[in-house]
Design brief:
The structure holds 2 protein chains of 2 kinds. Chain A is an alpha/beta fold. Chain A contains 5 helices and 5 strands. In chain B, strand 4 and strand 5 form a beta hairpin. Classes of the chains: A alpha/beta, B alpha+beta. The interface between A and B is medium-sized, with 26 and 26 residues.
């Protein structure tokens, strides 16, 4: 799936990294616990989270996540957005809850970070 | 790869800058063309260590040493120390305050995650005397440990 298709599926808008909407990915992880992301094979995956802190961006960079999607209309602070831009990390926000976001992406054919469905 | 050493300072409770040392090391290793799975393991260990220091350890330092056959990380602090190291390494054991859990950390996974990703990990700590965590990563292809779960 391309990032632009994910944005459509979740009716999400880009906070940063809109120029990377053609980026391909096929795995998604959903977590508010950053150690869960660090403990999983999250490289080349998308992170769905309800946290919008600076640690989410750092965790995504360290873990090799390709883009971050904030659920429930979460908006990070301007400093966090600048930081994500510095790391070339696309960020999107969706009005849907974590549960509904996961369901929509699952229905669209995406897998978990370990490839499971 | 020539021997190379770099040291970063870690400040207690500085959550804004926590992670910068690990990201700097990650970028450094990318430039040295180190295998991406090894970079990921090193960055994860460094970052979990940095977060532990910022949350629990107080002021500290983060040293990386890059040699021909291995990469070493040493994260040390002058914080309260760890009374029971084996207990601290257990998955799910945590003394973290709720404010850290709200940031997505403090679930008692840091040390076990570090141990899983490092080829060797040694923790030296005593109550009142701070903590030193040393981790070694073999760079040879025959030593590549698999990352992830």
């Amino acid at each position: 799936m391309k990032l632009s298709e994910l944005a459509q599926t979740l009716e999400a808008s880009f906070i940063s990294g809109e120029d990377r909407e053609d980026m391909d990915f096929d795995k998604v992880g959903a977590a508010d616990l950053m150690s869960d992301i660090l403990a999983a094979l999250s490289e080349h995956g998308i992170l769905l989270t309800g946290l919008a802190t600076v640690q989410v961006v750092n965790t995504a960079v360290i873990a090799g996540v390709q883009a971050i999607v904030f659920v429930r209309n979460k908006q990070p602070d301007p400093g966090v957005i600048e930081m994500a831009k510095g790391h070339d990390m696309p960020m999107l926000t969706t009005k849907y809850s974590m549960f509904v976001s996961c369901g929509r992406l699952y229905s669209a054919g995406l897998t978990g970070l370990n490839g499971a469905r | 790869m020539p021997a190379f050493k770099k040291r970063f300072n870690i400040k207690a409770k500085d959550f804004i800058h926590a992670g910068e040392a690990s990201i700097a090391v990650q970028n450094m290793l990318k430039q040295l063309n180190v295998a991406s799975s090894l970079i990921r393991r090193i960055a994860i260990c460094g970052y979990e260590g940095e977060m532990n220091t910022v949350m629990h350890g107080g002021d500290g330092s983060f040293c990386v040493e890059i040699d021909t056959d291995r990469i070493l990380l040493e994260i040390s602090d002058d914080g309260p120390g760890i009374a029971d190291i084996e207990k601290a390494k257990e998955k799910g054991y945590s003394t973290a305050a709720d404010e850290y859990r709200e940031m997505g950390f403090g679930a008692g996974m840091g040390l076990s995650n570090m141990e899983k990703n490092a080829d060797q990990m040694i923790i030296e700590s005593e109550p009142g005397k701070g903590t030193v965590v040393r981790m070694a990563f073999e760079t040879g292809e025959s030593h590549q440990k698999q990352d992830g779960t």
